[in-house]
Amino acid sequence: MSLTYLKLRLKLPSNNMLVFIRTYRQAQRSTGPKSQEGEFRTLQLTPAKNNRSGPMKKRPKPVYKEVLPPRYLRMSTDQDWTNVWPTATTFKQSVVPLPITQGYVASDKENKGLPIEKRANAELMKIPNFFHLTPNHIKKHCAAIKQYCTPWPEEFNSDEACEYYLPIQITTHDYLNSTPSIRDTRARVVKFNFKLTQLEFDEHARDKFVRLAGPRYNTDTDELTLVADKCPYRKQNYDYAQYLLTALYFESWKTETWEQERTKNDWQRYYWDESPSRDRLLDILKAHEKDPSSVNSKSLLDRNKKLVERYRKSISRVQDEGVENELKNLKDYKNDVLMLYNLKL
Amino acid sequence: MTLITSCLIRARVAAYRSFNRFYANSVTRTIDVHSVPQDLFESKAEQPFRTSTNDPLLHTEKDLGLFYTVNPEDLKRISPFGKSLPLQFREECEAFNETCVMIRQPSIDIIKLMKQIDWNLPPLKVVLFPSELGVGMSLSLFHVLHYGLRKKMLLVNTPTAAEVLKLALDATPSPNNELMWDTPTAASSWLKTFAINNEELLKETNFRTKFTYTWSARESTPAGTHLLDLIGYATERIKYASECVGAIVKEVKTQVKEKNIQTLVTFDTINSYYGPTWIVKPDKSTVKPNEVTMVKALQELLLPDWNNAFIVVTIGPKGVIIPKVREKRNWLVRHGHYRTEHRLPGVLMYDEAMTVKSLLRTEGIEALEPFVPIQVQKYTDDEFNNQYRYYIDRNWIQNHRGRDEEGRKEILFYTAKNPYEMAKFVGSR
């Protein structure tokens, strides 16, 4: 049975004539003249030219199918592109009527460094494209969705108003698939996104909050992002994120005993009031006074409030900010110091 | 490979290198000479590039960008061991047979501050920081030092502050304090510099010690010893030189007020005092700068608990000590190579920003506060022209192509008005 199956698979002739299979190596007979047999035979690695076994066979010419020119050559210039490319698909060079290139020729032999055109360019198929999101596409989408929309609330006329009325942004995703199950595990994820200015903090609480949040806090935008995806259902994750936010906030207001052990290396920014810089400034202000022994540090600070505040701001900026603004910050600081010493440059 | 091909390759490599080195003479010129107005430069040539006064006390803002000649006796007194001026500049001066320093904005500014300062306040610190490598911080500092010397101020000068922490091969644990490390050679050379700088002033004011110093159970220096004698003793008993630096600092800080001597404290590359060092303990951990006796003593000069003093410090890439004790050998520039030509010999590469925060870090800024930061810039157009004419005057630019207007423009283009780059380019190093 298996043999018939094999024959069928290989489309072999069914007359059972090809059972001749050589299973071992046989010594080849010499093809040379008979006189050499038994003597020293010549070793012929390549067949001699005059001694071919048969005449060269003529290969048949390959017959190619006739192919139509690519579609982009047959397009009219005023067609509706949304009909050509209705949804997101991989790149097709025959359809896109643009002279797109990607990559360059790496070969040392020829054309090195030249850009590769779109035909037979697999790289273009790997990257995402946005041919399905042209303005006309968007217009069509919007026109289709419009019947389901409600009017925009009048109160939300600016970004600040939006921020004020909607302090927190809660993001979830729904997934629709044409599959037997309507469940999608990705739908359980809940994301909380809000700015820290929405919450009430003192200096310590804010510092602790940022430390507890860790990488979830973005310093540049002052935003916190909490993502809850541990529980199997969206409601559970939502509740957990709420709990997490509450716990974070109230935990940050607590002051533990071990927080007193904080050293200078733990500062997130330069606290001038606790730094030796303040003592230095006080020394100099004291030296300005007529009888230094009578004044204490508090009265000194009160008397020179404006100067101290300026000095504090400028030195903190020098310490905290990066190289970009440093020359400007140093200039401000220089002016403050010159004012402190009553000097002019 | 045959011998001939290897020779050929060597020859090609050599040709390539030489091309790289002496590109000044082989570059094709593309400037159209006729488009350049000739009379403009000639009218400038009539103006002098040297000042009439060689006394820094009389220098004003009118002398900006002009050269003044340093009196050789003064030079010897300010930098007896030649450390107050950078090596490359000293080599040039030797060739020119004179020491000419350009009067530049930062030094004029500092002198201006020094003239109006209230000496009863805690010392003001001026921090010079560079815009690039080799813009002439040390030379500005030298000008200030010269001013101080002429004004008969007490000079407390530490010319190369980073050197102690880098090259102290003789660092030993202190005999009196186990935690501290002595650097006898560096300390004794500092003491000698101090003595030579202020010999006349110390003799005039009869500067004697107020405290008794006990070096060991048998050796001590009683109160009332002259400072020069104390220094003489310490340079002979080199074991106690490091502690003697502390003694000198203490005496200066206490007595300067009552003797009414104005003090000028200068440090070159002070940012090395707020970083790691290359001194290694027997257990292979590194010594911190404030564990070195001499450095700790000198750091006390920066405290605000004394007056009658003015402090000028510089910070720069020369003072940055890169904490790679093991890999030091890989970073160190042994001899000039065209790929490492822009590095200074004996200095590790420092590629970060040359501003106060990145050079001094938080601790350094705190230690120096409050300070007046002054940036040393590259040459202005006038300064560049004066420098160029000085080189021609000294016959340092001998190639006739370098002497005409076109050559001047080429030097300007290649060096971008950086003084050190210019010296390298013109000297075809």
TrEMBL record, chain A:
> Which positions fall inside the Small ribosomal subunit protein mS35 mitochondrial conserved domain?
184-254
> What protein am I looking at?
Small ribosomal subunit protein mS35 mitochondrial conserved domain-containing protein
Q: Per the UniProt entry, what are the Gene Ontology biological process annotations, in alphabetical order? A: mitochondrial translation
In its UniProt record, a GO molecular function of this protein is: structural constituent of ribosome
* Species whose genome carries this gene: Adineta steineri
InterPro entries in the record: Ribosomal_mS35_mit, Ribosomal_mS35_mt
**CC terms in the record's Gene Ontology section:** mitochondrial small ribosomal subunit
Q: Which residue windows does the record flag with biased composition (Polar residues)?
A: 43-53
Region Disordered: start-end pairs = 28-61
Automatic annotation (TrEMBL), chain B:
Q: Which UniProt keywords apply?
A: Mitochondrion, Ribonucleoprotein, Ribosomal protein, Transit peptide
Which Pfam families does the entry link to? DAP3
Compartments annotated for it: namely: Mitochondrion
CC terms in the record's Gene Ontology section: mitochondrial small ribosomal subunit
A single Gene Ontology MF term assigned here is: structural constituent of ribosome
A single Gene Ontology biological process assigned to it is: apoptotic process
**Entries under InterPro entries matching the protein:** Ribosomal_mS29 (IPR019368), Ribosomal_mS29_met (IPR008092)
| Predominant localisation class | mitochondrion
Q: Does the keyword Ribosomal protein apply?
A: yes
Superkingdom assignment: Eukaryota
Q: Which family does it belong to?
A: Belongs to the mitochondrion-specific ribosomal protein mS29 family.
Record protein name field: Small ribosomal subunit protein mS29
